[in-house]
Amino acid sequence: MSEVWVELNAPRFVVHRHSAKLRCEHNVDPESLYKVVFFKNGQRIMKFVRGRDPPFELYNVTGADISLMNLSPTSITLDRLDFSASGPYACEIALETPLYSKVSKIHELNVIVRQKFRPKIKIKHKKLSSSDQLEATCQSAPAHPAPHLTWFINNNK
């Protein structure tokens, strides 16, 4: 048997209340695949075992619902993601013969809220001489996580 690889394919950023599809990709022949498990924060969220009735076991996912319509042995869709659904995800595949399992690397998923408009700069005094001090404020739209604002004057930080 060649070197087995497994990788969790999922978006890095998901807009609040939207959905995310997580796919456990691997190079194992589907007939040899015995078990697939998805994890969030090291806790099971879905387990598929070939030959069991029912083949799927679903667990609670804080901040999301698992879509039953989009469930497959190697993929799950998380619906209506809330901020608490952010965190580390992984998947594991297992073979029955030979007895073997492998876990993917951790994939960080972040639930976000995009800014609705660009940052706005307000300048207190519009006309200044070169010796005057500039007084200005920069305000960004609400977003999650909060935007990091950096001032640039003549392309200098």
Automatic annotation (TrEMBL):
Domain Ig-like span(s) in chain numbering: 119-157
Name of the protein described by the UniProt record: SFRICE_022045
